[in-house]
Amino acid sequence: MTTPAILTAAVVGAEVTRAQNPAVPYLPEEIARAAVDAWRAGAACIHLHARWPDGRPSQEAAHFTEIVERIRAAGCDAVLQCSTGGAVGMSIDERLGSLVLGAEMGTLNLGTMNFGDEVFVNARPDIVRVASALRARGLVPECEVYDAGMLDTLRWLLAQGHLAAPYHVQFVLGVPGGLSASERNLRFLLEGLPEQVHWSAAGVGRHQLPLAELALRLGGHARVGLEDNLFVAKGVLARGSHELVELAVAAARRADRHPASPAEARRILGIAT
Ligand code: KMH
Ligand code: ZN
Fold first, then answer.
1. Which of 111, 160, 252, 266 is the most exposed place for a label (fewest CB within 10 A)?
2. What's the CATH number for 3-269?
3. ipTM metric
4. Would you kindly state where each structural domain of the chain is located, as residue ranges?
5. Any residues with Cβ below 6 Å from ligand 1, and which?
6. Between 208-217 and 183-191, two packed helices, what is the crossing angle to 10 degrees?
7. How far is the CA of 55 from the centre of ligand 2 (A)?
């Protein structure tokens, strides 16, 4: 029996647009369909953002509720993880709008950083506040680590009792302003992980599939999808996140892993069923 690899599909994000790739979903029904397609392709977990109909990022509870309900109505049992990162410039209050009934995980962004030409603000009191909002709702945090010092913040949160198992770590590498998506950087980050933590990697842009391949070889899990990357190959647009999931499934098999079922993912992630 091979070991399971949790493949997460990040199907929309807050930054990519339809002008860049017509497959980027905006409406709740489009986002739900993209999620279900990604699940059918092998994703056990869906990382969710929402949009207004014109494509602007939304953290409106009504949008997230509709997305969650549509996904479940389609018979999809993937783990649902809602973004509390939202988009650059949103307040923490606004960002927490995504934590609707039906969510099982929420993201916890571990620091302030340059994000392209903008600044993604996650001051330490903000991080503590999001961690406590997740705990109050019984959601498993996914700690988003974009740079090495954020692992020190993770240790600080644990030491102060703001964070406790179960939690999951996602290394998001290759954001302009964060740590780049090299093998050396991922190996360095892994040396700084607390013992027994399960982790995943998400590479931005052309780094997505190579970083997924590496993470799966190193025993981690992987995130792919249009939020982070719009292409299946150089110059070839993905027709949806499901195509990127299919490539991640092939990478998992090459690493002698199998795509985790949602039930396996819940067991690994410590999500109560
Ligand atoms: N859109 C980024 C600024 C998360 O989902 O928690 C933040 C983000 C992280 O996407
Ligand atoms: Zn996100």
1. 160
2. 3.20.20.70
3. 0.99
4. 3-269
5. 13-15, 83-85, 87-88, 107, 109, 115, 120, 144
6. 40
7. 15
